[in-house]
Amino acid sequence: MKSLIVANWKMNPESAKEAKALFSAVKKGIAGLNKKIDVVMCPPYEYLGLLKGLILGAQNCFYEEKGAYTGEISALMLKNMGVEYVILGHSERRRMGETDEQINKKLVKAVQAGLTPILCVGEKKEDKDRGKKQEVLEAQIKQCLGGITADVVIAYEPVWAIGTGDNCGVDETKESIDFIRKFVKTGTRILYGGSVKSDNSGSYLKEAGANGLLVGGASLNAKEFIGIVKSAE
Ligand code: PGA
Q: Which of 111, 124, 210, 229 is most buried, taking the most CB atoms under 10 A from its CB?
């Protein structure tokens, strides 16, 4: 199975000039690397049309095809721009009110448009403390994947580990990934995300059974991100 390393730039950087510079630095740094690694770059929408030469992903899409939905973007629009992946259900969007039901509708549209969804799931600190981690993960997966038979990528991202520097331990990650595997098709790629850096990335791939990584903060630093991709070799 090919490893999948995904850069989630979130709402960064501030200008197209910086976006192009970061993108070309990454492109240069990973050229000639093992062809068994897929690297997907997920910049903000407005940069998608400007960046060429690596696989592109979006950070979200809407669950309707077209019409009066001010400020939204459809899966088909992304596909028509050459985008191949879309991150759905990120905890930063769930925090703004996105529900499992809406995420499921987005997955349906993404698959119909020919995009590969990267579905994010993960427990909050309080879920973990109350011993409800597995219950939360199971419910998110079952509800978000309801009726979906196409191949999707799952990103296990404990909410408390995102952007905090408090990355999830390898054993704990392995336990969650093994648990998630029970609810997805064989061959599904399961990524880990949450404070991944070049000095911890390799252990998730080698010891925790992750098939790849979803990288936020560290993907904004070309050197760090290239180091993370190299750790998948
Ligand atoms: P982080 O973000 O690497 O900055 O923790 C990961 C994510 O939000 O996908």
A: 210
Phi first, then psi: what are they for 37, rounded to 5°?
Answer: -115, 125
CATH of domain 3-230: 3.20.20.70
Is-contact 5 33, C-beta < 8 A?
no
Task: Give the pLDDT score at 29.
Answer: 96
Check residue 171 and give its pLDDT. Answer: 98
Q: What separation in Å is there between the alpha carbon of 88 and the centre of ligand 1?
A: 14
CB 211 within 8 A of CB 178: no
| 162 in contact with ligand 1, CB cutoff 6 A | yes
Q: Is the CB of 122 under 6 A from ligand 1?
A: no
- The helix/strand/coil state of 131 is coil
What's the 214 CA to ligand 1 centre distance in angstroms? 7
Q: Which long-range contacts (CB under 8 A, 24 or more apart) does 44-47 make?
A: 44/9, 44/10, 44/11, 44/12, 44/19, 45/73, 46/16, 47/16, 47/19, 47/20, 47/23
Cα(first)–Cα(last) distance of the chain, in Å? 13
Task: Please classify residue 106 by burial: count the beta carbons closer than 10 Å to its beta carbon, then call 0-12 exposed, 13-18 middle and 19+ buried.
Answer: buried
- pLDDT (0 to 100) of residue 32: 87
| Residues with pLDDT less than 50, the chain | none
CA dihedral in degrees (55, 163, 59, 86; nearest 10)? 60
Residues with a catalytic annotation lie at 90, 157
pLDDT in tens, 132-190: 999 999 999 999 999 999 999 999 999 999 999 999 999 999 999 999 999 999 999 99
Residue 35 and residue 233: Cα distance in Å, rounded? 9
